[in-house]
Every structure is written in structure tokens, then in C-alpha cells.
Design brief:
Elements: H1 3-20, H2 25-59, E1 69-71, E2 77-79, E3 81-84, E4 92-95
Antiparallel strand pairs: 1-2, 3-4
Helix pairs in contact: 1-2
């Protein structure tokens, strides 16, 4: 369970307590703020992961290959073409993207 999940549960519990009149809206607002902060942390972690993955692919020379791109001698970017191997369209060229 992540801090995001815990923040969602805490917000739901505080909202229910507020509806029942056992808690003030301060706790609901505080829970909303904590949920927003947890969501921000989660999204930042996802961005950091994608940036790290791109850096690894760049450093290993695989950045373009992961997008099925190649640069020819004239510095033109083009997509790879692959062949589909199934009974319906065997040996028919098809772009990856």
C-alpha cells in the first residue's frame, strides 16, 4: 500500500466523520491536502522513472530503437518496417507506429 492509497483512505474516513458530525471540516481539508501531496509525489516518481529510462536508453545507444527509428547516413530519421507473421497477412510490410 502506498502513501497515495493511505491518503485516499484517510480522506474517505475523515469525510465520513464530517458527514456524521464527529469531526470538523479542518480534518477533511487537511486530508485533501495530504492526498494532493501524495499524488504529486507519485507523479514525480513516474516522471523521474521515465527520465531515467530515457537516459539509460540514450547512454546505451538504444533511444531511437525503442521508438523504431533510425538515422541514415544523410541524417534523415525514418521508421523501421517490419513484416507481420500471421496467417491473415503473412509477409506484408507494416509500420510499427
Amino acid at each position: 500500500m502506498t502513501s497515495f492509497d493511505l491518503a485516499k483512505k484517510s480522506l474517505a474516513a475523515n469525510q465520513r466523520k464530517f458527514e456524521l458530525g464527529t469531526e470538523t471540516n479542518f480534518f477533511v481539508l487537511d486530508s485533501q491536502e495530504r492526498l494532493a501531496q501524495a499524488e504529486l509525489v507519485l507523479l514525480q516518481a513516474r516522471v523521474n522513472y521515465q527520465e531515467a529510462l530515457a537516459a539509460i536508453n540514450h547512454a546505451s545507444g538504444k533511444l531511437l530503437a525503442s521508438y523504431h527509428l533510425q538515422i541514415d547516413a544523410g541524417h534523415q530519421v525514418s521508421r523501421y518496417t517490419c513484416f507481420v507473421r500471421n496467417s491473415a497477412d503473412a509477409d506484408s510490410p507494416r509500420s510499427q507506429h
